[in-house]
Prior knowledge:
A: alpha/beta; 33% strand; B: alpha+beta; 4 helices; 32% helix
Amino acid sequence: xxxxxxxxxxxxxxxxxxxxxxxxxxxxxxxxxxxxxxxxxxxxxxxxxxxxxxxxxxxxxxxxxxxxxxxxxxxxxxxxxxxxxxxxxxxxxxxxxxxxxxxx
Amino acid sequence: xxxxxxxxxxxxxxxxxxxxxxxxxxxxxxxxxxxxxxxxxxxxxxxxxxxxxxxxxxxxxxxxxxxxxxxxxxxxxxxxxxxxxxxxxxxxxxxxxxxxxxxxxxxxxxxxxxxxxxxxxxxxxxxxxxxxxxxxxx
Lengths: 104, 138
């Protein structure tokens, strides 16, 4: 089961993920993200500082969230991404799309 | 365990079972001193076991997924078998997702990392080979 902590400051929602974002975790987080977007969050920051595993379904959730927010000039941002996950996103040509960075 | 360096799992088709297999595999690979392939092995295991559960067995928990892992001298070999009808892997393996696609990235990731993929003819069993740089010296 996914563990995460969510906070909101104005229109920016921050999600601190723990350990992983994988196919088993996506359904629970998906509904929470929908609630945040419906509540007015236009920028969602995913803090990957403690994430060591991201699979293609997790990537799909990030893309779907980004696709949704772009329609309202919003965006997704990934911060504190590990070198392995950053390389994965770079390989998938998704670094710019998801505004991913290894720093905060 | 059935032979030196061989590891097998048989799990019900529930995504919550994937973590257990991946964690054990991570531990085994780290113990074997192969830390440089831990990330890609975990990722490939997840991709192919997820595919077997979701697409192969259609999440039917009465059906199982069998997983085999073996560390050889130059390759780490993973086999994943489901009880489904298979799929048209010959087409799927060629696809390149666009940046907006929300699915269909698993096989593309494998290709990008230089992982060798072999399916049986119907597509319900896959063999994944990950190159061990410098070989396994354990």
